[in-house]
Design a protein that fits this description.
heterodimer, A: alpha/beta, 2 domains, four-stranded mixed beta sheet, about 70% helix, B: about 400 residues
């Protein structure tokens, strides 16, 4: 009974605190929405289209022109410029105004008709790997389609009009490529669904640190610690944990509910994993704050810990190809365990048993709270000793302050 | 106060600020090892796949061997149906599979163009791309072989046949990053952003720290003599930007020199060319950081704001997702962050070997940002100084 009362009291206190502090209000309510909107906005087209490329047509024949038309017909590509020389095209590629250029050699038509198999050369910008890969595969498929047409036409003459045989000769083996679990290969959904959890982790950890530090704005560290019980601290965090959890539930409901992104797994399991993630992040934040007991320094630790998390999540670059040290660092980040569960649920609808490892890993982060408790008790003990030996804690306080001001 | 005194006070303010030192030196150096860590292996290789061979002919086993020979995939399991493959995929044991249909060899002999089935886990794009690339490569090699042998059977010359198997060939050349390495892709851009973000935090911490502490702890008499309230704003900004510029010039050299060399990332730009971009880049960031410090009530918010802006800045910079496919509003706003033109400029100069003469646009954009942010920070700091001095007077 007294527990519920103190909990309700804590909610009331924290609500007043949030109302007074515009920054805290922003962090809890509108900053997450704004960040999600920006990331969603960047990738809102989902599938890249009309990427600018150039051509250097040295042949200028009907075959070269229809080849160029075929490149332009690809939805991914758009031939924006005809260059007169390779140098000009090269400059444009370096400048970034085109992502690739194709050089069509002299006498392409003549050599094709003579069966001499001429070569078309395409240079694509592979510094931007993702864009480069999109461009190169679009070029290859546009080229392949045209060549197959040309060849089928040629074979049709030999095969006396039998289309299947002519086709079979042009393409002795055909293949069908099936993207599993993400049927429309929507790059936007793929990245947004991973970037938003990464930002969510940053927000949870940073906001928790700010919340823990709020009492220090009005009192000194010593007197705050003296009057504090560890359990009060945890109760103080409960309302925030609920808000963070709600943020997570909202983002998955918007994406997989309102926007109808495909979702194959269990909502209940995913929401439960989100709860565990929030607890894990809050525990890590508590530890980071108590290591430093200074909000600015704690925030530096948060930055070091959470900022590179996206690179380690294993979504863009596979975990299995990371060195052991990177895999170890990855395991220390709560979000990488959560993203495993999210991908498993959303894409495969994996069973509970397949996710237990990740769920357990998330639970184990709460051990940070235990370490924090030990730190806190040690600090409290030394604090009370200090208070006994020097009753004039103000003096030491003044000394500390002077350091920064000379 | 003499210049010498001002300079030494600035030095003191910067080099005794522990969170600043942790961010600038600790952050920059730790990140230089931590950030490239996941990408050290450059490209994903040897993705585990399963094979479902329903044909069991000599030729189907040749496909298996060919697929296994590519660096991209490795066959780890022999299975008999698609359900089994899916279960393995969900468990994460394999990342794709190859299905060779029944009568594959017979259909090939009948010139019926038989179908191979490739499937990859598209939840992870890079993995999927790698698996597909490996499988397509082995299938097209086989197709080419089949074509050549047919031409030979028809009586063509083998040398001629092997060069004529396709009417028009396409030779695809990856440019600037020929190995398609992920490290070469991410690190040069992200390092610019790390310098950008840590410098913003550092400037924010110094500036906000000075204007924050006075309210909380200092008696107004002591505050009165604080140099940042008594000295002319232009002098403070000048001295501070010079010191931070020098510090960051050293850190930038460490990134663009030692780190790039260590990771084998190309450095095509000459030092004078680089410098002509470094000047406006660092200066614009320094003034932007000062503005940030003047606008926030507490210094820890500097770290927080910069931290939250990192991922949006990375994804709107244009090296991951084409700017032409972004909403204009996001693109326009991103241009006000020095990181956007700087990432673009440094990549063109250092990785793509563009000449500095072609970078007029990027350079003038950065210089405009320098002028804009220097003016704003001057005005804001003057206002803040005045309001503090006013508020201190009556209390005396």
């Amino acid at each position: 009974m007294s527990n519920t009362l103190s909990f309700l009291q804590s909610i009331k206190n924290e609500w007043q605190l949030i109302c007074r502090d515009a920054w805290l209000k922003a962090l809890l309510f509108w900053v997450p929405v704004l960040l999600a909107l920006i990331i969603w906005g960047v990738f809102s087209t989902g599938i890249a289209h009309d990427l600018p490329i150039g051509v250097v047509d040295k042949d200028n024949s009907s075959i070269s022109r229809s080849l160029i038309r075929n490149y332009s017909a690809s939805p991914t590509l758009s031939v924006v410029k005809h260059f007169n020389s390779t140098e000009q095209a090269d400059t444009a590629l370096k400048e970034g105004s085109i992502y690739a250029f194709v050089i069509i050699p002299h006498a392409l038509e003549k050599n094709t008709l003579l069966g001499k198999s001429p070569q078309v050369t395409a240079f694509y910008n592979s510094q931007f790997i993702l864009i480069g890969k999109l461009v190169s595969s679009a070029l290859l498929s546009a080229h392949g389609t045209y060549v197959a047409q040309l060849e089928t036409l040629k074979n049709l003459v030999n095969a006396h009009g039998q289309v299947t045989q002519a086709l079979g000769e042009a393409l002795p083996i055909s293949y069908q490529i099936t993207p599993l679990f993400n049927a429309n290969t929507h790059y936007g959904q793929f990245l947004v669904a991973a970037v938003i959890p990464a930002m969510w982790q940053i927000l949870i950890i940073a906001t928790t640190v700010i919340v823990l530090a709020t009492p220090l704005r009005n009192t000194t560290l010593e007197s705050w610690i003296e009057n504090l019980h560890f359990s009060d601290l945890l109760i103080k965090l409960i309302p925030y944990i609920l808000v963070f959890w709600l943020q997570g539930i909202i983002y998955i409901s918007v994406f997989y509910g309102a926007l109808h992104w495909p979702m194959h797994g269990s909502w209940l399991l995913l929401i439960f994993a989100q709860f565990l993630l929030v607890i894990a992040c809050a525990s890590v934040a508590t530890l980071l704050f108590f290591i430093t007991l200074d909000v600015t320094r704690a925030m530096s630790l948060v930055a070091g810990f959470a900022a590179p998390a996206f690179a380690f999540m294993g979504v863009t670059f596979p975990t299995t190809d990371m060195p052991v040290l990177a895999q170890f660092w990855r395991a220390l980040l709560p979000i990488s365990h959560y993203i495993n569960i999210q991908i498993q649920q959303v894409n495969y609808g994996s069973s509970f048993i397949n996710t237990t490892n990740s769920l357990l890993a998330l639970v184990s982060f709460s051990s940070c709270l235990y370490i924090t408790k030990l730190l806190f008790e040690k600090r409290k003990k030394s604090n009370s000793l200090k208070l006994k030996s020097y009753t004039t804690d103000k003096q030491s306080d003044n000394k500390n302050n002077k350091k920064g001001y000379n | 106060m003499t210049w010498k005194k001002l300079i030494s006070s600035e030095f003191y303010a910067i080099f005794t600020n522990i969170p600043l030192l942790v961010t600038v030196f600790g952050g920059v150096i730790i990140y230089s090892f931590l950030y490239p860590l996941p990408y050290i292996n450059q490209t994903p290789t040897e993705q585990k796949i399963a094979i479902i061979n329903l044909d069991n002919s000599q030729l189907s086993r040749t496909i298996e061997r060919m697929a296994n020979a590519t660096p991209q995939v490795k066959i780890t399991q022999q299975i008999y149906n698609i359900e089994e493959a899916k279960a393995l995929l969900v468990k994460g044991d394999i990342t794709g599979f190859l299905l060779i249909p029944q009568h594959f060899y017979r259909d090939l002999l009948l010139e019926k163009s038989p179908h191979l089935l490739f499937a990859g886990n598209a939840s992870y794009f890079l993995v999927y791309g790698t698996v597909v690339e490996g499988l397509v490569r082995s299938a097209s090699t086989l197709a080419a072989e089949v074509k050549v042998s047919r031409m030979v059977i028809r009586g063509d010359n083998i040398a001629l046949a092997s060069s004529q198997f396709t009417p028009i060939g396409m030779n695809l050349k990856p440019t600037f990053n020929p190995s398609l390495g992920y490290l070469n892709y991410i690190v040069p851009a992200v390092f610019v952003l790390i310098l950008h973000q840590t410098l913003l935090i550092a400037m924010g911490l110094v500036t906000a720290g000075q204007f924050e502490d006075k309210v909380k702890l200092k008696p107004s008499s002591a505050l009165h003599s604080s140099y940042w309230l008594t000295q002319p704003v232009w002098k403070i900004l000048l001295v501070r930007s010079c010191i931070m510029f020098a510090v960051y010039l050293a850190l930038l050299s460490y990134y663009f020199g030692y780190s790039f060399e260590y990771y084998g990332i190309s450095r095509l730009a000459t030092i004078p060319d680089l410098l002509s971009l470094v000047f406006p880049f660092l200066l614009s960031v320094i003034f932007l950081g000062t503005i940030l410090g003047l606008l926030i009530p507490r210094k820890e918010l500097a770290t927080l704001i910069v931290l939250l802006s990192s991922l949006p800045l990375v994804f709107s910079a244009g090296f991951i997702w084409p700017t032409t496919n972004m909403p204009t509003i996001i693109n326009v706003i991103a241009q006000f962050s020095p990181s956007t033109p700087a990432i673009n400029g440094f990549l063109r100069l250092n990785q793509m070997g563009d000449s500095i003469d072609n970078l007029v646009g990027v350079r003038s954009q950065l210089w405009l940002l320098v002028i804009l942010y220097a003016t704003i920070s001057f005005i804001l700091m003057t206002l803040k100084q005045r309001s503090f001095n006013d508020s201190l007077k009556p209390s005396e």
